[in-house]
Amino acid sequence: MKSTKMLTILVLALALGLMLWSGRLSAAEPMGKGFTYQGHLYDSNNVANGLYDFEFKLYDDPCTGSQVGSDVNKPDVDVIDAYFTVELDFGSSVFDGNAVWLEIGVRPGDLNDPNTYTTLSPRQEITPTPYALYAETSWRQGVARRVSTYVVAASDSKWKSDADYICDGTEDDVQIQAAIDALPATGGSVHLMEGTFNVAASITLPSYTTLTGSGFSTVLAATNTCEEMILASEENYICISDLVLDGTNQKEAGAWRGISLASVGFAIINNVYIQDTDHDGIRLQTSNRIEISNVFIKSVGGHSILIGYGSQYVTVTNYFSDSPHLEHVCIEWEGAGSAQNHHITLNNIIGINAGNAGFYIQHAHTVVFNNCISEGSVQPEFIILDCVDVCLNNCIAKNAGSYGFFTNDNVTEMVFNNCQVLGGVPAAAFSIGSDRTLLTGCIENVGGNGYGVSVSGSNVLITNSQFKHHGGFNGNLIQVSNCDFGERDSHVSVYIKNGATNIDFSNCLFKGHVYIYDVSQDIRFDHCRWHDLDGGAYGSVYIAPGSSSDIVITNNVLKSGILGYISDNAGAAIIRDNTGYVTENWGSSQGTGSQQTIVHGLSAVPTIVIISGDSSDVNAFQSSAADTMNIYITADIGENYHWEAKVR
Questions:
Q1: What pLDDT, on a 0 to 100 scale, did the predictor assign at position 179?
Q2: How far is the C-alpha of 298 from the C-alpha of 383, rounded, in Å?
Q3: Nearest in space to 405 (alpha carbons), one of 384, 378, 423, 434
Q4: Residue 55, helix vs strand vs coil
Q5: pLDDT tens string 59-106
Q6: Please, which residues have CB within 8 angstroms of residue 395's CB and are 6 or more apart in sequence?
Q7: Is residue 336 a part of any domain in this protein?
Q8: Strands 124-125 vs 101-108: parallel, antiparallel or unpaired
Q9: Any bridge partners for residue 253, and if so which?
């Protein structure tokens, strides 16, 4: 006798893989009326195992409504580790173009009849594959009805007989466009079979349209000149995938673009290869909520991807660009009255051999780069102009021709996180003109004598970074901590110049001397260390003659050059408590009645000498100017005195 236990269903996690039950279809074969349903069942919060009875019903409403067709019962279905598969056949008549929802009842297979089914909630909408049953039935009955999926064959496709439209190899865009135009107003899909489609005019996509191919075996080849190969304008919900767009035949003949979206909302471009277009590979104008992924663009005559005219919420992921005439990605405000582009995310992008810059970003805000590489561009690998809130994470500029990363003075809120500049001979690896900028965890390792980092901006924080070459600082309000600086041929690690102000270096390593000039002031070095200077002339710090002031050098480990540890030619330095550089000393002596020579032991000529006696009537005084080795004191015979020498 079967048990009478009750079943509690907590979750039915639907892995709803709906697909046609029949195999490959042709005009001579009848179509199957079933589809396969796969589910995931839990019983009393546990993974279900064993035999279960299922009951399936179709309704015309997700909650109430009327039943469509008859019940389909599946007794004693074997559920293994929660997974089960059943074949359902409601007949083709229930799929008439109207939406239907599947209701599922389930009970343990070992319960006696009659035992009611536990009805699962919510009902699941059936989309879209069973409607191919409806499409096939309508076509076979000769009914002139618009369906949601059409197949288009090229002249060289293998299974032409399965297609709704067959191209002849001449102006194949006509047949493709006819299939698109035949879709219902609610949208649908046009699938291009394997083969080469010769395209002479733009293929235009309306809203709610999906255009797919069969991967690299589906090629749209340009045979005439026009603006775009695929175009959508003022439409919504567009999907383009699994295609090759080839402009080789017309690259020099006209303004072919691969894909152009103008004023489009909610679009996906996926698994697309574009090559040899005369202008841009992909162009977005005033479009929003666009996802571009798994795209390869090669040898186009303009930008590989252009994002402009106020486009927003655009994501580009897993994209490779090779040898565009202009940039791999250009995000640009284009003309008076255009809105800024914003909320742009670029992930996992590799670009090589750009004819202009690698990535060119102007008049945009809220732009994020993640794991992007640009190599071998003629202009800067990454150039950021007139932007707000730009963040680069784990990006690499390689073999740069002019700059690795460049920002101008009209950029604010800029972050470089774990970025690298490798190879090449750029004028500067990192050229920072922006305001409110963080550069952290970055590395420069290039050739030539350019700057590792050059900073002309304000409110800049540079931390935990390594520069093989020297740094240049002529901005203000700059903090540099835990960084390593190399040197150029003249043994300089850092230039501070052109009126730079309020610059702090802490816990930094310098492999050459620091050169301060051109009225720079409020410069501080604290807990820094200088490497052996290899014969450099000026020692650790050289302060050029002029009006520089308030140079504070404290708690550092200094090294000497040919001219000593520090060369202060402006009288601007306050030097205290530095290892290897003595700035204070003192002692006692007894007068001889003539000038005495006393070794002061300082690392520079004392700027202050103080002499005092045991009593107020002691006659002792500095009788000659101090030099790099000695101070000179005259006191009466037998009088005891004390001396103190200091470097300011």
A1: 96
A2: 21
A3: 384
A4: strand
A5: 988 888 899 989 999 999 998 888 888 888 887 678 776 788 899 999
A6: 369, 370, 371, 372, 373, 374, 382, 405, 416, 419, 420
A7: no
A8: antiparallel
A9: none
Q: What's the rounded mean pLDDT across residues 517-535? A: 86
Answer yes or no: do 174 and 211 share one domain: yes
* Rounded Cα gap, residues 439 and 456, in angstroms: 14
The backbone torsions φ and ψ at residue 281, rounded to the nearest 5 degrees and listed phi first, read -70, -55
Please give the pLDDT value at position 528.
96
- Report whether 473 contacts 451 (CB < 8 A): no
> Looking at per-residue confidence, does 532 or 416 come out higher?
416
234 within a domain of the structure (yes/no): yes
pLDDT for the residue 461: 98
pLDDT of 128 above 50: no
Burial of 448 (0-12, 13-18, 19+ CB in 10 A): exposed
- Does 502 map to a domain? no
Shared-domain flag, residues 24 and 71: yes
CA 575 – CA 513 distance, rounded (Å): 16
- What domain range includes position 601? 584-646
Q: Please answer whether residues 222 and 199 qualify as being in contact, where contact means their C-beta atoms are separated by less than 8 angstroms.
A: yes
Instruction: Select from 135, 168, 194 the last residue of a domain.
Output: 135
* Region for 282 from its dihedrals, namely left if φ exceeds 0, alpha if ψ lies in -120 to 50, beta otherwise: beta
Asked if residue 157 and residue 78 are part of one domain, the reply reads no
- C-alpha–C-alpha distance, residues 188 and 208, integer Å: 6
Instruction: Indicate whether 129 and 14 sit together in one domain.
Output: yes
Categorise residue 171: left if φ over 0, alpha if ψ from -120 to 50, beta otherwise: left
Residue 116 domain-assigned (yes or no): yes
| Maximum CA extent, the chain | 133
Where is average pLDDT lowest: 61-75, 472-486, 496-510?
A: 61-75
Domain count, the chain: 3
Domain co-membership, 81 together with 38: yes
Q: Distance (Å, rounded) from C-alpha 350 to C-alpha 296?
A: 10
**390-432 per-position pLDDT tens digit:** 999 999 999 998 999 999 999 999 999 999 999 988 999 999 9
User: Does residue 164 come out as left (phi exceeding 0), alpha (psi in the -120 to 50 range) or beta?
Assistant: alpha
Q: Is the pLDDT of residue 353 over 50?
A: yes
Q: Does residue 178 have a pLDDT over 70?
A: yes
75 shares a domain with 99? yes
Counting every residue written for the chain, the total comes to 648
Q: The pTM is what? A: 0.74
